Description:
Blueprint (H helix, E strand, L loop, with lengths): L1 H8 L5 H24 L6 H25 L4 H17 L3 E3 L2 E3 L1 H18 L3 H15 L1 H6 L7 E10 L2 H14 L3 E10 L2 E11 L3 H14 L3 E6 L10
Antiparallel strand pairs: 1-2, 3-5, 3-6, 4-5
Helix pairs in contact: 2-3, 2-5, 2-6, 3-4, 3-5, 4-5, 5-6
Amino acid sequence: MISNILQSFRMEPGIWEICLRLLCAMVVGMVIGTEREYTNRPAGMRTHILVALGACVVSITGQMLLHQYGSGDPARLSAQVITGVGFLGAGTIMREGATVKGLTTAASVWTVACLGIAAGYGFYAIALAGLVFAFITLTILELLQHHLPGRTHTNEEYALECEDVTVALTLLNEQAQAQRAYILHTLAEKCAMGYQLTFQAEFPGAGSKRRRDQFFTALAAAPEVRAIRRGVEGARQKTR
């Protein structure tokens, strides 16, 4: 079995075979990259296509080197690609407060590289089957994931007016801890009534909407807060 695979690697692929492998890698990167682009992720269609094409080119090059010189390990170059793409994927991972985002995109970039390697070696069935299962994971399983217990979350924007920013931040952290929420993207600006503090609050887990309302009610009732508005639901305000 292994000897047959090595023998096939020693056969130099023709120009049409090379183009077919590159096309297969391009399709793999385009499909997965389009899904990431549609969901506004850090790495989009072109990034995934280039990763898949690069991995495919490296695989073809390794096979042609083995054919030309008659020795060597064609998988060695591919192993370096898998390692190198890991650093590229790490660039898509971002931390926002206590939340880490971009892990799925990093995994999709790494997966695209692996599928590109399979296409580069001429294993079309592996590349296309891997594409189908990767696409199912990114689309259908994502929908199922949001219906799992404890996976729901609510993210909302707020604008808060106060006299003392330090006191307001302390109050925010206390209420966020009480409602198991995370405060994100905090910005303080000078205004006519003192300071305006804009921020986002994320409420992960079960009961997120109830905890969001309790969070807003507690802030509205606090004497340190002059006025507070919700980003979308700005009808309810508190004024002193």
